[in-house]
Design brief:
This protein is α/β, with parallel strands linked by helices and 463 residues long. It has 3 domains: 1-130, Rossmann fold (3-Layer(aba) Sandwich); 149-290, Rossmann fold; 293-450, Succinyl-CoA synthetase domains (Rossmann fold), CATH 3.40.50. 42% of the residues lie in helices and 18% in strands. It is built from 16 helices and 19 strands. It has helices at residues 5-8, 25-35, 77-89, 108-120, 161-174, 192-201, 218-229, 243-253, 260-269, 278-290, 306-318, 328-335, 356-368, 387-400, 415-426, 435-459; strands at residues 12-16, 41-45, 51-52, 55-56, 70-73, 94-97, 124-126, 132-135, 140-143, 151-158, 178-183, 207-212, 234-238, 273-275, 299-303, 348-349, 374-380, 407-412, 431-432. It has a 7-stranded mixed sheet with strand order 9-8-11-10-12-13-14, with helices on both faces. A 5-stranded parallel sheet has the order 2-1-5-6-7, with helices on both faces. Helix 5 links the parallel strand 10 (151-158) and strand 11 (178-183). Helix 3 runs parallel beside helix 4 (108-120), helix 11 runs parallel beside helix 16 and helix 14 packs parallel to helix 15 (415-426). The longest helix is centred in the C-terminal third of the chain and has 25 residues, at 435-459. The protein is elongated, with a radius of gyration of 25 Å. The model has no long low-confidence stretch (mean pLDDT 94). The chain binds acetyl coenzyme *A. Acetyl coenzyme *A (ACO) binds at residues 16-17, 19-21, 24-26, 45-49, 74-76, 79, 82-83, 98-101, 129-131, 161-162, 165, 185.
């Protein structure tokens, strides 16, 4: 097991700088640790307090007599080194350094000294300049972000603090379940590659999402990312792609954003799905974490609108995926329900007359057909049907179909469409407001499948 095991499942956690003042970050972190339900020992550390949030407080980590594996450090940067030595004496294994004021503002020597001293005591450092971390399998939320993160199978590594906190909230809104959420900030010690090694072996994680400004050791990242990508998809939002963005990254986390083309090549070689926006990343994470892996590339598009079908076909083609004629037995089944003027090539157009029942029958038939690997369902809100009715029909088809297969749904319309999307999302059926986003998300699964096959071939004898 990776050396980060104790970071994610500590016997005890100390919060240094745990203030009684409810507006201070140390207080907020302690509150999240307590209220999210962490089952291990929790120790507030503050020489000025006897108790914080009803827990006995300690003047220093070295005065705690239980096992402390993790020390969250929420005191100003000038005081951090004192805590390092004290935590080292106490036998801690990991320091989670919240404080800003290191490399990102030119204090390179202070940051180097932090790592040097931690290493001397055999400790690893997460941060500095971070908002903390979450690991839902042990109900640990040691952040000053939102408390009620939804448990799930996505591990999220973020180099941006504020954006990370905001995205933490978005995962709750979007129904994305999290196994871990790690703010890495300046990455003085623990970096993406260390975390990927842990998530590679972590049975609670099946997809990894990274917001990255730069990497410290590109070669190591490629090696580790290639290994994990054979098992689990890794999605990366690489920011600082433009000159302006790179300048912003340098003053944000002290990262060198580097050459875009180099990063893109490295990502492709290591099987990483590179995305440009947060929206695209979340769209991908939904299909990748809620759907099974497709066993082939044969996608069937079912729609009630020709235009939506055309837009989806274009998007799939842009992603290198070309639609083939659907299997004849599937076509014969659909023919029984649709009017004679329906076009049954791919996209399969149920026409504007499509009822909720037509959606149910055609989607179920597609999911059950052995010559179809993935299904893209498009619905444009018409007066004949309600988006919620169609969403229910699709969910029923998914539930009743014998085989589990990737599916992606677009529900296009107004407020009712939005509610239907939320309904499907809550049931872990990936649903989007446009045909392009639904198509792009299912294509991500096919792209990942291709990358994975390429990586597996590379390591197999004769591959
Ligand atoms: N051991 C234990 N407790 C100590 C020690 C020590 N050695 N030294 C001080 N303390 C206590 C203080 O007395 C205080 O407790 P009190 O309120 O009871 O007096 C508490 O620790 C906190 O110390 P403060 O000096 O009040 O520091 P404050 O809480 O205001 O700020 C912080 C500390 C949050 C680390 C701040 O210096 C900082 O760096 N903030 C930026 C954090 C940040 O932006 N992180 C980046 C990612 S998040 C994002 O981008 C949104």
């Amino acid at each position: 097991m990776s050396s980060l095991k104790d970071l994610f499942s500590p016997r005890g956690i100390a919060v240094v700088g745990a203030s009684k003042d409810p507006t201070k970050i140390g207080h907020l972190i302690l509150k999240n640790v307590v209220e999210y339900g962490y089952g291990g020992k929790i120790y507030p550390v503050n020489p000025a307090a006897d108790e914080v949030l009803g827990l006995k407080a300690y003047p220093a980590v070295s005065t705690i007599s239980g096992g402390v594996d993790v020390v969250v450090v929420s005191v100003p940067s000038a005081k951090v080194l004192d805590v390092v030595d004290d935590a080292g004496k106490a036998g801690a294994k990991h320091l989670v350094v919240i404080a800003a004021g290191f490399k990102e503002v030119g204090n390179v020597e202070l940051e180097n000294e932090l790592v040097r001293r931690a290493r001397k005591h055999g400790m690893r450092v997460l941060g500095p300049n971070i908002f903390g971390y979450v690991y839902t399998p042990v109900k640990l939320n040691a952040t000053f972000g939102p408390r009620d993160v939804i448990p799930g199978n996505v591990a999220f590594i973020t180099q941006s603090g504020a954006l990370g906190i905001a995205l933490m909230g978005s995962t709750i809104l979007e129904g994305i379940g999290i196994s871990a959420l790690v703010s890495v900030g300046n990455k003085a010690d623990i970096d993406d590659a260390d975390l990927l090694e842990f998530f590679d072996e972590d049975p609670n994680t099946s997809v990894v999402l990274i917001y990255m400004e730069g990497v410290n050791d590109g070669r190591r990242f490629v090696n580790v990312a290639s290994r994990i990508s054979m098992k689990k998809p890794v999605v990366v939002i690489k920011s600082g792609r433009t000159e302006a963005g790179a300048r912003a990254a340098a003053s944000h986390t002290g990262s060198l954003a580097g050459n875009v083309a180099l990063y893109e090549t490295a990502f492709r070689q290591s099987g990483v799905l590179s995305v440009k926006s947060v929206e695209e990343a979340f769209d991908f994470v939904k299909t990748l974490s809620w759907n099974p892996l497709p066993s082939g590339e044969r996608v069937v598009v079912i729609t009630n609108g020709g235009g939506a079908g055309v837009q989806a076909s274009d998007t799939l083609a842009d992603d290198g995926l070309y639609l083939e004629k659907p299997p004849q037995d599937f076509v014969e089944e659909v023919k029984k329900i649709v009017p004679p003027f329906a076009s049954l090539a791919n996209p399969v157009d149920l026409t504007g007359m499509a009822s909720e029942d037509w959606y149910y029958k055609s989607v179920k038939t597609a999911l059950e057909n052995r010559e179809i690997d993935a299904v893209l369902v498009l619905y444009c809100h018409t007066a004949l049907t309600s988006p919620m009715g169609v969403a229910r029909a699709i969910h029923r088809a998914v539930g009743e179909a014998g085989a589990r297969k990737p599916i992606s749904v677009a529900i296009i319309g107004g407020l009712e469409a939005y509610e239907a999307i939320r309904y499907l999302t809550n049931l872990k059926v990936p649903a989007y407001p446009t045909p392009e986003r639904a198509a792009h998300a299912i294509a991500a699964q096919i792209r990942y499948r291709r990358y994975r096959e390429y990586l597996l071939k590379r390591i197999l004898p004769g591959g």
